[in-house]
Amino acid sequence: MKSLYLLSLTIVWLTLPSALLAAPEHPRLLVTAADWKKLPARMEADPRVKKIISATIARADLTLRKPLLTYKREGRRILTVSRDAIERVLDLSTAWKVTGEKKYLDRCRDEMLAISKFKDWNPDHHLDTAEMQTALAIGYDWLFQDLTEADKKIITTALLEKGLKSTLAQKKIMSWHNNWNQVCMGGLVLSAIALSDLEPELSSKAIEAATQAIPKGLSVGYPADGAYSEGGGYWAYGTSYTILTIEALRTAKLPFDKILTHTGFLQSGNYVRQVHGTSDLLFSYGDNRPGTFDFSAAMTWMAKQNQSQALSDFIAPTFDQIDSETHDRFLALSAFWLPEKTDPKEKPLPNHFVGSGLSPIAIHRTGFEAKDLFLGIKAGQANVSHGHMDAGSFVIDWAGKRWASDLGVQSYNGLESGGINLFQMTQDSQRWSVFRLNNFSHNTLTYNGQLHQMDGKSEIISSTGAPQNETLVNLVSPLGLPKNATATRRFKMDTDKHIITITDSLTGLKPNDKITWNLLTPASSTPTDTGFFLTQDKATMQLDLSSPQSTKPTSSPADPPPKPHDEPNPGITRIQLNATADKEGKIVIKAVLKAQEN
């Protein structure tokens, strides 16, 4: 039996190149000839499909009025050019297939020839290469019947030399656990499938390498609860490329189940819904931005794959946003990924959520409507991919507004152009000199005015939903406290009275050690005897903030920021309380935020 088993494995292995030789005719990437044939009827039957295709054609018309893409570096990247290449190729090729107007075909071919002739695709920052080969692979496959042999030679040579072979040489990326793995392996798979009839053995080798590498990225990026390790904003980037990989393997009739069924991957759609507060803003921990949820092809696919009513409801309002200004470069693909039916056994999303993995979080809410109260809590450590010194930080939403803010990321290019080495992860690296990245800009505690310990990990000790609605976080390690000291932050939500209570308890400090309590808010602040009234438009929250070891809290603008390289923070107020350890080394700080019902 054993010999038969080994023989069967050998046969599977030896037949992979020949399977690629027998790959489906073009198009075989993401959208098949049968899919294109069905599209006109689907446009008539589903207004969403028609709107997506109309917006795609409108974007293609805008491209016709622009110059061809050129090799343009921003800092160490040409990533903007690569992403524009994807958008243009998808838009123009879709417009050609739908309308039959040759102007779209001609321009798409010209764009592909232009990027094929670039001196390189910036392999040192390999995301640029991966996205460029994604654009060229799709364009070559979709327009295969419409390109001349001379065009194909130029395009396939560039795709092979600057894309597939270049990525195959990036062995280190194949072992990484962040979005680089997902994006670069996705680009590799797409180019390998596109070239499989020309380079069957090399394409087979590339697909094998990618499908072995991808689970390494997924294993850290997606814990079982789906809490994507790099946050809700970066979720779309890494996840989009895993989706592209799955769909490319599916349409090429190659195995994809191992990726699709990876624990936590499909669950990550619900995580993204959970980390959007009742203000519609993202809980923007790490290198994410506190924006609203915009149209997302990736989330459209996730809603379809999960047959999820909750995710379908989440994305439904974004279809009203679709027009020629829609920024999602994968817009055209979403016409083929729309959710069509939902699972009748699906349970409603809970009001309490705990995310594990590299960036643990806890969510408490009274519901998912604008009127509801939302509390997002961050634990973890700073030295993770796209991490900040935000352990113990939190955001609060109520009445459709954000009251406790996370400022989010600052533009990479601007900082790097100023000489800041953003991605060196050491305690004294320049990364932590950036206000938005260190603990001084987050709603957490600071010990003796020091940076958090970069490798200090904050744990969620416990987190329970109704009726307790309580989360307890250990902050000892990131604060860098003396040996045998303790530091906990307890969050409690009273869902009936719309009150959030945060209690910080520290022991084992040295007498006169200082702890700074910090809150950043877009609200205007009016002092009271026990804290502040926070006001936005006609909505008010009362903040009572006190400690037996402190004087009254203070309020001041968050501008100007500390360093010349820091981005301004207009309209943001910083509320602080400084507490001094008593002779027993204890500090207790209590903050109560209460929604003032009209």
Descriptive notes:
By secondary structure, this protein is of the alpha+beta class. The protein has 2 domains: 2-274, Glycosyltransferase (Alpha/alpha barrel); 352-410 and 429-596, Beta-galactosidase, Chain A, domain 5. The protein has 17 helices and 17 strands. It has helices spanning 2-21, 33-45, 47-64, 79-99, 102-116, 126-142, 149-168, 179-194, 200-221, 231-251, 257-260, 268-274, 297-306, 309-315, 331-334, 412-417, 476-479, and strands at residues 352-355, 361-365, 374-378, 394-398, 401-404, 445-447, 459-464, 470-474, 486-494, 499-507, 514-521, 524-527, 531-536, 539-546, 554-557, 573-580, 587-596. Strands 7-8-9-10-17-14-13-12 form an 8-stranded antiparallel sheet. It has a 5-stranded antiparallel sheet with strand order 1-2-3-4-5, with no helix packed on it. The chain has a 4-stranded antiparallel sheet with strand order 6-11-16-15, with no helix packed on it. Strand 4 and strand 5 form a beta hairpin. It is elongated, with a radius of gyration of 26 Å. The chain starts with a helix and ends with a strand. The model is unreliable at 1-21 (pLDDT under 50).
Show the helix and strand layout:
Layout: H1 2-21, H2 33-45, H3 47-64, H4 79-99, H5 102-116, H6 126-142, H7 149-168, H8 179-194, H9 200-221, H10 231-251, H11 257-260, H12 268-274, H13 297-306, H14 309-315, H15 331-334, E1 352-355, E2 361-365, E3 374-378, E4 394-398, E5 401-404, H16 412-417, E6 445-447, E7 459-464, E8 470-474, H17 476-479, E9 486-494, E10 499-507, E11 514-521, E12 524-527, E13 531-536, E14 539-546, E15 554-557, E16 573-580, E17 587-596
Antiparallel strand pairs: 1-2, 2-3, 3-4, 4-5, 6-11, 7-8, 8-9, 9-10, 10-17, 11-16, 12-13, 13-14, 14-17, 15-16
Helix pairs in contact: 1-9, 2-3, 3-4, 4-5, 4-6, 5-6, 5-7, 6-7, 6-8, 7-8, 8-9, 8-10, 10-13, 13-14
